[in-house]
């Protein structure tokens, strides 16, 4: 799908941010009450790819909802096992293009799009669920039709890695999706550059991905870098990675038993990396986004002067 040349929702004006601050709590409560969300109305599958059309389940719209822009009536989901260790699940507006990270920033395979060959969507939701898997892949995707949600699991252990709740929000200026996590077993690392007290993310913390030029001497603030990526290491040591490929501002709420993405624009373009070692996750991740440049050894012992305390 083409990316718009003038990404109106990439750098939202201050007014939108102010509106968000005022209306976010209201919007969240309406995502949580079970209303809204989407149903799958058609789905086609070929080999290691799947595409589906989703339709908005009509729900009462409050003024707070309207402030977040029109809700997308139709969504387009494409999912594919791009390599043996990488699953992509991409959800876009079915009627119009939206801002996405440009191809020249991160060159990547175009999403599989079988929708043109799909049978006409019926207005009645599909029943049950569909599974996408491949012999060489440890990742399995399950798409639940009504209400729409999806699950990513590890074939070799049966462990559920990502499990979205019904009630996906996809509005012009606000996207929200929540996945359940096993609070006692998941250990998350990542989610932007910030000054938290530990590398392992702590429960009930919010990670703001909004790059800011703030000195790292301050605690609990967001800094320069914002990769919406986390690694989850679970006993007895299997790790996987989750990337939401988005350059839009977002908050990620990590509650221990869940992770919620609240994004102001763009699309939902998730990549799951199978690992299973942490090193393999980083290898699979940087295979997609690009390897870091090697540093010359002579540059490493950078003389850093620590200010003397008086
Ligand atoms: C996180 O919040 C939940 C709900 O308020 C609470 O039950 C839990 O104890 C909190 N966990 C931590 C580590 O603070």
UniProtKB/TrEMBL annotation:
<dbReference type="GO" id="GO:0004553">
    <property type="term" value="F:hydrolase activity, hydrolyzing O-glycosyl compounds"/>
</dbReference>
<feature type="signal peptide">
    <location>
        <begin position="1"/>
        <end position="29"/>
    </location>
</feature>
<protein>
    <recommendedName>
        <fullName>Glycoside hydrolase family 31 N-terminal domain-containing protein</fullName>
    </recommendedName>
</protein>
<dbReference type="InterPro" id="IPR011013">
    <property type="entry name" value="Gal_mutarotase_sf_dom"/>
</dbReference>
<dbReference type="GO" id="GO:0005975">
    <property type="term" value="P:carbohydrate metabolic process"/>
</dbReference>
<feature type="domain" description="Glycoside hydrolase family 31 N-terminal">
    <location>
        <begin position="79"/>
        <end position="248"/>
    </location>
</feature>
<feature type="region of interest" description="Disordered">
    <location>
        <begin position="102"/>
        <end position="128"/>
    </location>
</feature>
<dbReference type="GO" id="GO:0030246">
    <property type="term" value="F:carbohydrate binding"/>
</dbReference>
<dbReference type="InterPro" id="IPR025887">
    <property type="entry name" value="Glyco_hydro_31_N_dom"/>
</dbReference>
<keyword id="KW-0732">Signal</keyword>
<dbReference type="Pfam" id="PF13802">
    <property type="entry name" value="Gal_mutarotas_2"/>
</dbReference>
């Amino acid at each position: 799908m083409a990316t718009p040349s003038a990404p109106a929702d990439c750098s939202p004006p201050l007014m939108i941010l102010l509106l968000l601050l005022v209306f976010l709590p209201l919007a969240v409560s309406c995502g949580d009450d079970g209303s809204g969300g989407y149903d799958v109305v058609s789905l086609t599958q070929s080999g290691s790819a799947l595409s589906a059309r989703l339709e908005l389940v009509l729900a009462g719209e409050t003024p707070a909802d309207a402030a977040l822009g029109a809700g997308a009536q139709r969504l387009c989901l494409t999912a594919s096992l791009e390599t043996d260790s990488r699953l992509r699940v991409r959800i876009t507006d079915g009627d119009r293009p939206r801002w996405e990270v440009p191809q020249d920033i991160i060159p990547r395979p175009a999403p599989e799009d079988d929708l043109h060959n799909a049978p006409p969507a019926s207005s009645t939701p599909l029943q049950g669920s569909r599974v996408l898997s491949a012999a060489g892949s440890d990742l399995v995707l399950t798409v639940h039709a009504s209400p729409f949600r999806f699950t990513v699991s590890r074939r070799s252990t049966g462990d559920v890695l990502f499990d979205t709740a019904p009630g996906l929000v996809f509005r012009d200026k606000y996207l929200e999706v929540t996945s359940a996590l096993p609070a006692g077993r998941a250990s998350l690392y990542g989610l932007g550059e910030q000054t938290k007290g530990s590398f392992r993310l702590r429960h009930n913390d919010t990670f703001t991905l909004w790059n800011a030029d703030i000195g790292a001497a301050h605690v609990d603030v967001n800094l320069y870098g914002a990769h919406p990526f986390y690694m989850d290491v679970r006993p007895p040591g299997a790790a996987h990675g989750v990337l939401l490929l988005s350059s839009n501002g977002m908050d990620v709420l990590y509650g221990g038993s869940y992770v919620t993405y609240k994004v102001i624009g763009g699309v939902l373009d998730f990549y799951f990396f199978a690992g299973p070692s942490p090193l393999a996750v980083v290898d699979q991740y940087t295979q997609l986004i690009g390897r870091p440049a090697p540093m010359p050894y002579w540059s490493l012992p950078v003389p850093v002067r620590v200010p003397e305390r008086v």
